[in-house]
Amino acid sequence: MSEIRLGEIPIPLVNYIRLIKYHKSPYYDIAQHIMKEMEMHYMRVGHGSTTIYTINPRILCDEIQKKVESEKLTTLNICRTVLALFYGSRLREEGDFYVTTTSRGRRNYHIRITPHTLNLMNKFI
Predict the structure, then answer these.
(1) With helix as H, strand as E and coil as C, how does 32-65 read?
(2) 110 close to 84: Cβ distance less than 8 angstroms
(3) C-beta atoms surrounding 122 within 10 Å
(4) Intra-chain end-to-end CA distance of the chain, in Å
(5) How far apart are CA 101 and CA 21, in angstroms?
(6) CB of 97 within 8 A of CB of 86?
(7) How many CB atoms lie within 10 A of CB 43?
(8) Residue 119: which H helix or E strand, with range?
(9) Within 10 A of 45 (CB to CB), how many other CB atoms are there?
(10) What is the DSSP letter of 21?
(11) How far apart are CA 77 and CA 61, in angstroms?
(12) How many beta carbons lie within 10 A of that of residue 123, not counting itself?
């Protein structure tokens, strides 16, 4: 993992990056699910246009639990896995992705889907 510098990424996320990189379940499964959903969304919308894809961790948790049985599937772990996927792929915050917070404190993750961001994320996974 020499390509990932600890000073650039928050410490808890470095562990999640390693878990995804070494194909550990359910973290790798979450990353794969997100990638498949984003690619399908991008295909439906059309190539050449920038598309914003929103990830709601609660909804994602419900979808993943149908496929993967694990006590580690919590909303917090999903949030950290999503951020680890973004940081591990070397996506730029505010440039390639951004995070919004609802009035109740829940977070949603938004990513600009372009061929560049899909390529970076596929290389990481």
Answers:
(1) HHHHHHHHHHHHHHCCCCCEEEEECHHHHHHHHH
(2) no
(3) 11
(4) 13
(5) 28
(6) yes
(7) 9
(8) helix 115-124
(9) 14
(10) H
(11) 9
(12) 10
Cα separation, 14 vs 24, whole angstroms: 14
The gap from C-alpha 42 to its chain's centroid, in whole angstroms, comes to: 15
Question: One digit per residue, pLDDT tens: the chain, 125 residues?
Answer: 445 554 577 778 889 999 999 999 889 999 999 999 988 888 887 666 778 899 999 999 988 888 887 777 888 999 999 999 999 999 988 889 999 998 888 899 999 998 888 899 999 98
124 in helix, strand or coil?
helix
CA-based radius of gyration for the chain: 14
CA 48 to chain centre: 22
For residue 40, give both structure tokens.
Answer: 């399908």
What are the structure tokens assigned to 110, written together? 């938004």
Q: Look up tokens 């996506």; give the residue.
A: 91
In this structure, the chain runs to a length of 125
